[in-house]
Amino acid sequence: MGNKQSIFTAQQLDAYQDCTYFTRKEILRLFYRYRDLAPQLVPLDYTKQPDVKLPYELIGSMPELKDNPFRQRIAEVFSEDGEGNMSLDDFLDMFSVLSEMAPRDLKAYYAFKIYDFNNDDFICKSDLEKTLNKLTRSELTEDEVKMVCEKVMDEADLDNDGRLSLEDFQHMIVRAPDFLSTFHIRI
Amino acid sequence: MPRKGAVQADDVSVDIDDEQSDSDDGTTKRRANRRQAGGGRGGGGGAKGRGRGKKAESDEEEEEDEAPKGRRGAQNKRPAKKRGGKKDDDDDDSEEEAPKNKRGGAANKRKGGKGRGGDDEDSPAEKGGKGRKGGKKGGKEEEDSKGKKGDGKGKDEKNKKKKKKDDSSSDSNSNSDEEEDSMSEGEMARLMEEVEEKKKLIANIRNKPWRMKRRLVLLREAQQFVDKFEGALGKGKGRKWYAYKVMMTKKWIKFQRDFENFRTACIPWERKIKEVESHFGSSVASYFIFLRWMYGMNLVLFGLTFGLVVMPEVLMGLPYGSIPRKTVPRAEQDTAQDYAVLMDFNGYCKYSVLFYGYYNDQRTIGLLKFRLPLAYLMVGIGTFGYSLMLVIRTMAKNADVGGGDGDEGEFTFAWKMFTSWDYLIGNAETADNKYASITTSFKESIVDEQENQKDENIHLRRFLRVLANFLITCSLGGSGYLIYFVVKRSQDFATRDDLSWYEKNELELIMSLLGLVCPPLFETIAELEDYHPRIALKWQLGRIFALFLGNLYTFLFALFDEVNTKLEEEQSIKNASIWAMKEYYANFSRLVNDSESTPPPMNPADVIRGPCWETAVGIEFVKLTVSDIQVTYLTILIGDFARAVIVRFLNYCWCWDLEAGFPSYGEFDISGNVLGLVFNQGMIWMGAFYAPGLVGINVLRLLSSMYYQCWAVMATNVPHERVFKASKSNNFYMGLLLLVLFLSLLPVVYTIMSLPPSFDCGPFSGKEKMFDVIMETIDLDLPAFMGTLFSYAANPGLIIPAVLLMVLAIYYLNSVSEAYQNSNMELKKKMQMARDEEKNRRNNTDSTNQVMKDLEDLLPNRSLAPPAPPEPEKPPEPEGKPTKTRGGAAGKGVDLQKDVSLASSNPNAREPVTRAPGARGRGQPPGGRGRGGPPPR
């Protein structure tokens, strides 16, 4: 396994393997994916931990994300500055959570963050409306949207505070049969 | 004196810095900065500054740059605080250490505590200083926790604990003059615990929803801590052992990681699947994942068969032409190399290592004394055993991961909202389809919700459903009869030689055609039934399954007929063969007239052979498999590729839009393909015992079909219009596979256990039954007592109780699981009830308002109270109860009145009277006025 790569030190790679669900090879592959987004910005040497961030425009144009209605939210949630500008660490983080190996709870946590558009740690009606409009490209009428949002609240809001807390969300999502298979991006 | 403590702390931190710079160069700059800062400030001020840093760490989303410094600060602070708190924390709850560790900085705390082991006896003044610091820090911590409030669950608790700790430390310095040992028993245990904690953290750090940067830092700290103190643990005798254990664990972890790296590198087609996935979503990809899984399993079966049966026979067995069973008979030799004959797996193919008949019945072969017959039987059984185990394990794993125990309908809309988008999609067209299908499904659910099924003309629908089922049963029976008929006919054909190509391959063609024609036919018939698409899909799958199964079993029964006739035939041939042999020798001695000389052995090509039914069965299965491959590939080529080409290029000169109109492009038929794969595998399982080469053919088939179908689906198919979910069906397919496995196990085991093997071909020739080879091995190769042991074990007196026991165990486990299920249901019901209650109590504001308003209209009129002008913004939440009261229990009403009167005791309650009168509130009961009192929530 001693093929030459001078991008990371061995310790760095080990640390990344400890912190993500990826193997060495996948980490390197992700690095190259990251670098391909902006070869002029990203250096080929990460042993010094350069402070590089790629703007959201580049991240959002990745084929994995470009058709996702929530791409902006994903980038925002996983980026440190909350604006969607991602460093390599954020990038690895994102794909680690979205990988096949990540446990349900972790995925649920980040899914919650993604659907929580206004970052208030609750999914409220306006978040639901936004989600729905993104999912259907605003093709439902206003009444329909309202009704669906009410139904969702009705179903999932366990403590009846009119918004979904993380617990409500987890309670609902861990029972969903499709969550794991769809909240997943293969790299 | 306080200064001293701080300086010490700084020393500690510097020490650590040095260490860290060994392991990591990246943050040197930052660290240098920080060290400066640490050095610059002194004593309490320093602690304070660091405390600030610490806070920054906690909400690092805002001030990322501060974070490392803050962490560092926390580290420095710890030892100082530790010294204050240490005195009493032997009897303090030790588990409060644990959460603290996670917060970073803890790595050095111990060190601080221990490093001081020698110059321990501090003056009270110093302790006081520390106590002050501790107190200050407590304040800081408070801020800290405040900043964190929203940060998520669990952390507040942690903070609280810490605060408690701090308090105790600041309190304790007055009376804490007890001994402080360097390494007592409890200390050790605690250290051990801490190390374990760290290790757990290292193992689980990827599961924490933290930022990568924080994770990296924490990981590094934890690792350093573990490295540092792991060696210190264990004393005397245990120490070496402990160190050894630690080393081995490390090696093991490293090995595991390397192995994992290797394993993931070995998984093929990840890219291809991803490509398909992003074009078609997870449902189509699930087929390819299934295919890959199948390929892996077949690869193992292939390894077993070829490694233990085929290769030994080829390398060590007798060569071709040495004995009759390995030689093409004289009569067939002229045509044995013809292409047509070979394609029918006759001629040289039939007498090759691919089929059962080729193997010799020598007990051991070659220098290694390899017991081929035994190996043959064991591999046959092992194939089933391995497949069974693998399928069941995968099913269990799927069930575990799938986890979706939610009832249908409980979260319909929520799931639709949050899980319907397929994050895998990376293709604009698919995304469009997905948007459309999501919109449709939402609309459907809304319609469903609004009007629960309008059932018009239920009689017609029932009639149509019965009719459809009748038609389908007819076609199932028809196809079964057709196959039986064809097999019978092929037996007649077998005796003739002037056969056309069609007549030779009739059976396979008919079976493949049935598989091709019937599913669409069923689909057309199913239109009559007018089921919901999801239910319709299940019916469709079940029917196709029944069709395939029926065909397969008809085929098998017909085959058994053939085998039985062959077995009868065999007896006479055996006699003829022996007679011919005798005749040959007699002739030889008569002709040569020399009774002493041993005659040259008869040419193996001339010996009269039995029909060797095993090889015949094997050939049938191989032919079936091959024709299945051909039909599948041709279907793809014609049905998808040719269609796509025509649609694409004729579209320029056609009267209507071919792409959007009638033929359009094909969709990938997931269920059909999966079922095809499952049944193919069933044939492999059945045939592999009689044709070891079949597994090899299947591996090739799967390999090629992976590439071919990937190409086909990418080139010619369009994404589904209604993208249906595959995740649930995953285990459904596995269940089908298990069923097929079981069904294909039956005939093979039956033949092994009860049919006599052919007398002149195959590894078991000359035995009464195939499994006699095991008896033989036990008798001849194992020591005698093993034989008796086995005979005891095989005694019905032992087997029957064992079976009984197993049945009992199954029954017990079954009832236990049922009980769990029941209690689960009970809990669920309880939760639902609690929820509803809560809802009713709290939620009456809006939802039931309309009803309440109406009732309110009625209520006051009855009470005949003076028309007091009521409040317009009636607080609705107590009103919910009156509605209930009206509904039923009068007793409750009394209670309510009490409530109301209580509420009215509020002097402000009368205030709303001055408001403008509303139409509905006229004539409130006396209590009713009070009811307006509490401001609306």
Automatic annotation (TrEMBL), chain A:
Signal peptide: none annotated. GO terms for biological process: calcium ion homeostasis. The keyword Metal-binding applies. InterPro entries: CIBP, EF-hand-dom_pair, EF_Hand_1_Ca_BS, EF_hand_dom. Residues 103-138, 144-179 form the EF-hand domain. PROSITE patterns: EF_HAND_1, EF_HAND_2. GO terms for molecular function: calcium ion binding; magnesium ion binding. SUPFAM superfamilies: EF-hand. Keywords: Calcium, Magnesium, Metal-binding, Repeat. It holds the Pfam family EF-hand_7. This is Calcium and integrin binding family member 3. It comes from Oryzias melastigma. The lineage of its organism: Eukaryota, Metazoa, Chordata, Craniata, Vertebrata.
